[in-house]
Amino acid sequence: MAIFFQQGSADSELSLDKIKKALYETFNNLGDRNKVLAIPPDYTRFHSFAGELTKITYQYFGEQLTDILPALGTHTGMTDKQINHMFGEDIPKHLFRVHDWRNDVMTLGEVPAEYVWEISENRVDYAWPAQVNKLLVEGGHDLILSLGQVVPHEVIGMANYNKNIFVGTGGPEGINKSHFLGAAYGMERIMGRADNPVRQVMNYASARFAVNLPIVYVLTVVGKNQSGDLVVKGLFIGDDQECFELAAQLSLQVNFEMLDNPLPKVVVYLDPTEFKSTWLGNKSIYRTRMALADGGELIALAPGLKEFGEDRQIDALIRKYGY
Q: Which residue from 106, 104, 32 is spatially nearest to 64, judged by alpha carbons?
């Protein structure tokens, strides 16, 4: 278990050339690999720079990169237009897989209910299944690259690391129970905290059920430079929890803004290229709730909105019963 590369600060701005050099050096040090699986986030994380990481990975491994599995979770599969926009047109389309979160999963093991009960402070009493897409287990890969951004998150405190595996490629029970655990424990107690019950459950699963999976995490921290452009502030590569914790520490500096007083009114604009459902658009609620004053007003501008759920069955349920 090791950190292969770490660089970044609140004042840093890592160029694509620096990122490419870091990735190439890491891949060289890992030794020859015959079959590589890349797991980047989907289009809803377009600004993560995971598209660039995936392109660099393909440039290095070529035919050894046999599968690209966007971590959809419950989201809809990426269109060719989205793939081209995020990953470019040089990567062959036949490499991309669509994660079927209801059918293409297997359970690696169960986190005991007693443990979940204890870490949730007696709020949740059930076992949690560590579910992943079966391609991770049955695909015969000798390297699995989990690519993506560490950023504050409403369900797990800080996004990515093993969430990209257990939720991004997870199944119904694992996804639903992890999100309920976060809700029961309290979003305000989780947001921006790298250590919390949801993360502890996944760390338990990583340490006990996923040790034979050859996973290496490539994590970015993204922020704005003085010109207001999104840039990579940090890059952290490793195969254990320390890699994530280093990225989370930097993300707190870069992606959190503390206010002196709560806000009476907040207006959020949801980019129509990313947000087409209320399922995703509700992030405007999650990510402002700790800043809004009691009785405050949130206005969400969502010009791309066309559906409720990212998943057809979930969309139908919301249309029938509401939230």
A: 32
Strand extents, DSSP E, 81-209: 105-111, 128-133, 143-149, 152-153, 157-158
Which domains, ranges and CATH numbers included, belong to the chain?
3-256 (3.40.50.11440), 259-323 (no CATH)
Three-class SS state of 158: strand
Number of residues written out for the chain: 323
d(CA 174, CA 101): 10
Burial 16-54 (b: 16+ CB within 10 A, else e): eeebbebbeebbeebeebebbbbbbbbbbbbebbbbbbb
Compute the chain's Rg from CA coordinates.
19
Burial (CB count within 10 angstroms: exposed 0-12, middle 13-18, buried 19+), residue 231:
middle
Structure tokens of 303?
């010009």
Alpha-carbon distance of 307 to 54, in angstroms, equals 29
What distance in Å separates the CA atoms of residue 304 and residue 286, rounded to the nearest whole number?
19
> Model confidence over 39-48: pLDDT tens digits?
999 988 888 8
**Digit-coded pLDDT (tens) for 1-58:** 689 999 999 999 999 999 999 999 999 999 999 999 999 999 888 888 999 999 999 9
pLDDT category, 312, cuts 50, 70, 90? confident
CB 67 within 8 A of CB 95: yes
Count of C-beta atoms within a 10 Å radius of residue 199: 26
Mean pLDDT estimate for the chain: 94
In whole angstroms, what is the distance from residue 269 CA to residue 44 CA?
A: 15
Task: Give the residue carrying structure tokens 């459902």.
Answer: 277
Q: What is the dihedral of CA 230, 258, 149, 132, to 10 degrees?
A: -150
**Among positive and negative, which fits the CA dihedral 94, 95, 96, 101?**
positive
